[in-house]
Amino acid sequence: MDLKKTQAAVNTITYNKAEIEKPTGNIYEAITIIAKRANQINSEIKKELIDKLDEFATYNDSLDEVFENKEQIEVSKYYEKLPKPHALAVEEWLKGDITFKE
């Protein structure tokens, strides 16, 4: 998943209920599918963030020294500004990128 190419909303927006439930015919089933995809996206983003932050990790037993790493701060800010996983999942759902089986 390429997070830079996404058009998902960063802010809260209102979606048309009919568009959300159109693929399944049931709003609750559609929301369940979207929620499962949002959990998958969240796991992917979290793993990617942890991998990037591990590059900056220092393994000291001393807690006295705290280093501020500008690259680490920039990486954290980038991930904070990304759309939330549920917004990404809804965008995928509306584009028809999510497949499901009954």
From TrEMBL:
Biological process according to GO: DNA-templated transcription
MF terms (GO), sorted A to Z: DNA binding; DNA-directed RNA polymerase activity
GO cellular component: DNA-directed RNA polymerase complex
Keywords: DNA-directed RNA polymerase, Transcription
Alphabetized SMART domains for the sequence: RNA_pol_Rpb6 (SM01409)
Signal peptide (residue range): none
Keyword RNA-binding: no
UniProt-listed Pfam families: RNA_pol_Rpb6
InterPro entries reported in the protein's UniProt record: Pol_omega/Rpo6/RPB6
Official protein name in the record: DNA-directed RNA polymerase subunit omega
